């Protein structure tokens, strides 16, 4: 049985003029424990909405979400919040650390809501996790004194200190340079594998996405399996969606140049199945 499963999940909102905006359209996704899955897509395609649904921060308009055999739609708000705190770890692009608090205090924060050993030994567990991510000598350092890579390591330690079953990473390397981003992904991969946690990474960066055992593209609210080659690094522009018009050279993710036409031949994402009649594009939802 899969750790989590989405079946026919949709998300829509009613606009002030009474029109309905469809953000997600019939999403089907299964993820097993210990699996690494990546989802790529341009801005405005519904990636954040999908991440919020996966992390129990939002609820689908229709369809079913089953987590570890339990239909999420049947849970009370309190039960959903409890599962969100115990089963999920969130890693964000902008770190979202508590300013004015030390690295140790930031990692301790989630354990304040824990029970039993995790609560009573919270400082010890937080220190051990910071040691695990290579910051054992920076326990008393505040975020403003840490580099970007170090801040992201603190954020990873905070996300993983409760040993979540699912790690949701939203553009985890987006604010980092190439080398630091690679180190951060190595760290996420290693700890997720050691803990047996599922890792779901949402990214614009094909080099990051290529690390996953399975990759998907989200376009126009439709999730499509794709295959990404890791032979060269590139940004989402290498996907070459039908109907997209080149807009000239521009920077890629994490400061990399956009992939050129020559590079596209070596770093290509190929759809594995039809996207249910929807042509890939930029989408119309945030």
Automatic annotation (TrEMBL):
Cited Pfam families: ABC_tran (PF00005)
Upper lineage: Bacteria, Bacillati, Actinomycetota, Actinomycetes, Micrococcales
InterPro entries according to UniProt: AAA+_ATPase (IPR003593), ABC_transporter-like_ATP-bd (IPR003439), ABC_transporter-like_CS (IPR017871), ABC_transpr_LolD-like (IPR015854), MacB-like_ATP-bd (IPR017911), P-loop_NTPase (IPR027417)
Chain ranges of the ABC transporter domain: 4-245
Region (Disordered): 237-286
Superkingdom of the organism of origin: Bacteria
Keywords: ATP-binding, Nucleotide-binding, Transport
Biased amino acid composition, Low complexity: 237-247
Protein name: ABC transporter ATP-binding protein
PROSITE patterns in the record: ABC_TRANSPORTER_1 (PS00211), ABC_TRANSPORTER_2 (PS50893)
MF-aspect GO terms: ATP binding
